[in-house]
Specification:
The chain is 44% helix and 15% strand. The protein contains 16 helices and ten strands. Helix 4 packs across helix 5 and helix 9 packs across helix 12. It is globular. It starts with 7 loop residues before the first helix and ends with a helix. It binds S-adenosylmethionine. S-adenosylmethionine binds next to helix 9.
């Protein structure tokens, strides 16, 4: 999405875009979709159940129906498929972890001016508590559980047997890679509280026997072990250029000759460093929540990788609509015997193998 604002009307429309998000968040705050469940409700009955006014609810439900998230029949409302599943706490596909995170963002973004003035995160004195880390890790799992398998299907790990998911959080990506590549073993590296969640998620998953865990603060400690591949997904933006530089050097030291460092993040791609808009907006989150984080251009990240000793830095193209971020993967190699893994698995190469 590239939005240009050149007229007053476009400015007004852009600012007024808060209205629908607020309506959606109020529905989540009421846990409306769980209450609606698989029944059809009249406004008076649902208002009684949710303990809200009939007037307020009828306006809210009308707006939810207008965007298709509820369905209206006569004077009654029922859930859409999305409402009945991912937004419904009683359904196994519920993505409550991520919904809780985005609910909390409304109050955080209200405080943007504070961060703008201080240059510091809004809760800069609050330590990263294990409770917060657990919730955040569930949120990351609920965010990526569909994207991770789609991405795993497009990255070849042929010839690689060891993967480190650095800052892997819930291990959703590591598990998706393991599910796709039967000869691969993976280690998820993160903080203790995040790894507890990763273990809970993995315990029902077939690939758990090929998964191990490493508790480490990789922003200050060397990475033990040697790996064929290090996957660094959605971590780059948390840190300043200097911090990432130091992490890149640690990653380099933990890769075998010819090993690959694959970075996934919200890269900027144009010469001026403005686009995609989503990547620039994501930098605002980093201002609110981190001390030195930002989003970076693919070209400056490439330069840091080369300064850390990596070679052959190149983007990994993915099918449109299957990406976590637009143009969001960069791959770099440690000098040494070239791994057979740099070839992206295309449909035709997969087909040939399976024949
Ligand atoms: C935004 S999450 C990304 C999770 C996952 N890689 C993904 O792409 O969905 C960043 C993760 O990096 C972890 N992390 C950040 N800095 C870290 C550090 N210095 N040591 C260990 N883990 C760290 C966080 O705890 C968190 O789980």
């Amino acid at each position: 999405m590239t939005q240009r604002i050149t007229t007053f009307d476009e400015f007004r429309d852009a600012v007024s875009a808060y209205r629908l998000p607020r309506v959606l968040l109020v529905a989540l705050e009421l846990d409306l979709f769980s209450t609606v469940g698989d029944r059809s409700w009249t406004i008076p009955d649902l208002a009684k159940e949710l303990k809200v006014s009939e007037r307020g609810l009828s306006i809210l439900c009308r707006n939810l129906a207008a965007v298709g998230i509820l369905q209206k029949k006569g004077a009654s409302y029922k859930n859409s498929r999305l409402g009945a599943t991912a937004l419904n706490a009683d359904h196994r596909a519920y993505r409550g972890g991520y919904l809780n995170l985005i609910k909390s963002h409304w109050a955080d973004w209200i405080r943007l001016l504070e961060s703008m003035r201080s240059g510091l995160p809004i809760d800069h004195d609050t330590p990263d508590s294990p409770d917060y880390r657990r919730q955040f890790t569930w949120a990351m799992h609920h965010r990526t559980l569909e994207i991770a398998p789609a991405i795993a299907a497009q990255i070849s790990f042929a010839g690689s047997t060891t993967l480190l998911d650095l800052g892997g959080g819930p291990g959703t990506y590591a598990m998706a890679f393991l599910a796709k590549h039967p000869l691969l073993r993976a280690t998820v590296c993160d903080r203790e509280a995040a790894l507890e969640v990763a273990k809970e998620i993995a315990c029902t998953h077939k690939v758990r026997r090929r998964l191990s865990y490493l508790t480490l603060d990789f922003s200050s400690e060397p990475i033990p072990g040697t790996y064929d591949v290090i996957w660094y997904s959605n971590v780059l933006h948390i840190y300043s250029p200097e911090e990432n530089h130091a992490i890149f050097r640690r990653a380099w030291a933990a890769l075998r000759p010819g090993g690959r460092f694959i970075i996934q993040d919200a890269f900027l791609h144009d010469r001026k460093g403005l686009y995609p808009v989503e990547a620039s907006l994501f930098a605002v989150s980093m201002l609110l929540f981190t001390r030195g984080g930002n989003t970076y251009s693919a070209s400056e990240t490439t330069r840091w990788l080369k300064e850390a000793g990596f070679i052959s830095v190149k983007p990994v193209p993915l099918k449109e609509g299957t990406e976590d971020w637009e143009g969001g993967i960069l791959e770099a190699s440690v000098p040494g015997p070239r791994p057979k893994t740099t070839v992206r698995q295309t449909r035709s190469s997969r087909d040939k193998k399976s024949r």
